[in-house]
Amino acid sequence: MHVFPNHIPKMASSSLHVIPCTILFFFFSVFLSGLHNADGSSCYKSIISFGDSIADTGNLLLLNGGGSAGPGRLPYGETYFHRSTGRFSDGRLIIDFIAEAVGLPLVPPYAGGAQNSSSFKSGVNFAVGGGTALNSDFFRKKGIMVSNGYSLDVQMGWFKKLLPSLCSSDSECKDTLGKSLFLVGEIGGNDYNNAILQKRTMKELRTLVPSVVSAIGSAIAELIGMGATTLVVPGNFPIGCNSVLLTTFKNSPQSDYDEHTGCIKWLNEFAEYQNSKLQEELDSLRQQHPSAKIIYADYYNATFSMFRSPGSFGFGDDVLKACCGGGGPYNADPGVLCWDAGAKLCDDPSKYVCWDGVHLTEAAYRTIANQLLAGPLAMPIVNSTCPKIAAKVDDKQNPPVSPKVDDGQSNSGAEMGLLRKKGVVAMYSCLLFATVFLVMQKI
């Protein structure tokens, strides 16, 4: 929003001398607005996100009262932000790179501005670390422990609560949501990870899949009914390459491991099975809602390609080893977590795919985003809907300047704000000079 005066006080006929300044003032304002949209921000009005720690931009940290627990302390955030923001990585996430590629600010966490809905006009993120597709009651009946109750239905509840502050009528809401990009996931990974870490059998794991897929499908259908038209739905990762799970099953027989990557085959096969069922659900939803653009984001293959050929993407040889963790063959021994004082931290996170044993590094997330937006796994509907989308996601390393918990503003947004402030100063200086000039003429 520009902070310019609505009008300029009328002067005598000699005020024609002010016209060049006024014209310059107007065109400079238009130029600044054009800069804001030149990178493709007109494609989507906002980004609305649901999910877990893969997309959490600070919700879990804020919901737990902030502070320095878990991802609220360095080395989390060290690479790009140079401070912790509540993201479960050393820097930006896939959602951050997508926002930058389509020309929108980084998506702020819902918990960071629930009392200030104006901060969500360009997007809002409901994803919470530890979140699940299924609710706590489901897991309680199954005897499976989960880390928190921020399930997909809870996140949907937050969205419905916030919606009246984003739009005031059904038609306005349909217009607003129709011009927004929805990211539904990744979600469901924790539903399975919790069961796996609690040593549930493969048969039990497979019984979870229909319920998880149904929960995701129901949320998508509800969002479409509310007005959403473009939805990106990621699949699960190749969890057999996860440092924590590799550590958990480190005594597995040699036949369990993929000879080319060292990942555990049965875990990856399960992830592929879950993804195939999710894609079947999405196919069904496309038939039911032909006007909606429902896009499957292939996180599995985008990630597995890095484990299969790390050097091709600039990663080192210890591709299964976490950059930050508690030591051991995969630097993921459970006794010491990345945020603990005794954690072992690598020298260069950009050479690692795995960050803390569960989550990935900024370099890995950038590689995934590149493949999805411009590479062999590109999402054509997103690119065709947004033709100005960046051909390659940004790789800049300059952080936003702020000592606070991340407010979701990108570096480009901070630069734009500074440029606008300088423009305002220049325009007022011009008008002041013209006014003094006119006064001197009268004297």
TrEMBL record:
Single GO MF descriptor: hydrolase activity, acting on ester bonds
Cross-referenced InterPro entries: GDSL, SGNH_hydro_sf, SGNH_plant_lipase-like
Record SUPFAM superfamilies: SGNH hydrolase
Coiled coil: none
Transmembrane feature ranges: 423-440
Region Disordered, annotated ranges: 393-412
Domain of life where this protein originates: Eukaryota
Keyword set includes Repeat: no
Family under the similarity heading: Belongs to the 'GDSL' lipolytic enzyme family.
Protein name: GDSL esterase/lipase-like
Species per Swiss-Prot/TrEMBL record: Iris pallida
Alphabetized UniProt keyword annotations: Glycoprotein, Hydrolase, Membrane, Signal, Transmembrane, Transmembrane helix
